[in-house]
Write a structure and sequence with these properties.
Strand content: under 5%
Number of strands: 2
Distance between the termini: 12 Å
Oligomer: single chain
Structural class: mainly alpha
Strand order of the largest sheet: 1-2
Number of domains: 3
């Protein structure tokens, strides 16, 4: 795994390490009044925690360009020079903080050490966030452009004639292929063309119609309950608001985003298993939770392209980036745009 990719997944850990390290440095007490004893104690303290410093440095080295890395190296060098006794070079200006080699500091070496560590941790945390966000956003938008080129027709694979039919079909698509759903819905829509008719349906009859989509009992129950909610609360119409959609039986954020984006043209990024898998492999998120993944992607992709980006990610997941055997050799995103995180071969 490349340094940048590894760093992406360790950002949160690194920041927590930084916080812990700063806290330890700030609270470190060196009781000896003798400066030489203090210097020895400070040196020993750094040695005890050199693994943490080495980890930070390795992470930084994997991401930062030469100019920024020089600054980070400078902060590390301050601590090294200080604990080595080279106090003549402990006055750099970093992020607006000046470390003075005055008598006051020399008589309190732990304070200078804490200040150096704090500056290093702050630089690392802030530059990681800024650099990673910008770099990842640029890469995400290049990915979006490539996917648009290879999948120019970004459309929902489900067959529907109106928002109600799309809602029903999307509920049925859970743990089922769109192709299978499209085989089932013609008979279902013929028997129940609107929310009012489905709301009064017998569950056993609906179960028979949707049996081949899997989990048919729960799906039939959700469809009838959802239709009843539409009739009782929304005059039989499918609402546009996210808050109202997710209150419907069988509807989560993924389904709601599909409805909003495809049926109503309201930007929304549906996160299904394909989008979850691909966004992690591409290094666009570190999360597993769909809501957090959606939030990460929304920051990276322009709002006007949320829906089509989600649909194209789904297409790519089905046709190229398979869960078990991704066809990386046929993927146009390699080698520059996809780090293949988690792919072993």
């Amino acid at each position: 795994m490349k340094g940048n990719d590894r760093l992406f997944f360790l950002i949160e850990d690194a920041q927590q390490e930084a916080i812990d390290l700063v806290a330890i440095r700030a609270s470190q007490s060196l009781p000896s009044p003798d400066c030489s004893h203090r210097m020895f104690a400070a040196t020993a303290f750094v040695q005890d925690h050199k693994k943490r410093l080495a980890k930070f440095f390795a992470l930084a080295k994997g991401l930062f360009d030469a100019g920024v890395l020089f600054v980070v190296q400078g902060v590390v060098k301050v601590g090294v020079q200080f604990v080595a006794g080279d106090v003549a070079h402990t006055a750099p200006i970093v992020t607006g903080c000046r470390f003075e080699t005055t008598t006051g500091v020399l008589t309190h070496p732990a304070r200078l050490l804490a200040a150096c560590t704090f500056a290093f941790a702050a630089l690392l945390a802030n530059i990681i966030i800024m650099t990673t966000t910008v770099e990842t956003r640029n890469r995400a938008r290049r990915i979006e452009r490539v996917l648009k080129r290879i999948y120019p027709e970004a459309r929902c694979s489900l067959d529907f004639a109106n928002p109600f039919q799309l809602l029903v079909a999307t509920i049925l698509s859970a743990q089922c292929t769109d192709a299978r759903v499209n085989l089932v819905t013609p008979a279902l829509f013929s028997r129940y063309p609107d929310a009012a008719s489905l709301a009064t349906a017998e569950q056993a009859e609906v179960e028979q119609l949707v049996r081949s989509t899997g989990f048919y009992q729960n799906k039939a129950k959700n469809l009838i309950r959802c239709a009843s909610q539409l009739v009782e609360t929304h005059a039989g119409e499918v609402p546009r608001d996210m808050e109202k959609l997710v209150q419907l039986a069988g509807v989560g954020r993924k389904t709601a985003n599909v409805i909003r984006g495809v049926a109503f043209g309201i930007p929304g990024l549906p996160v299904d298993t394909h989008v979850t898998r691909l966004s992690r492999r591409m290094g666009l998120t570190t999360h597993h939770d769909a809501v957090r993944i959606e939030s990460d992607l929304n920051v990276l992709i322009p709002q006007s392209k949320w829906t089509t980006f989600g649909l194209r990610m789904i297409f790519h997941g089905r046709q190229v980036c398979d869960a078990r055997k991704p066809d990386c050799h046929a993927c146009p995103l390699l080698p520059k745009l996809c780090p293949r995180i988690g792919v072993s071969h």
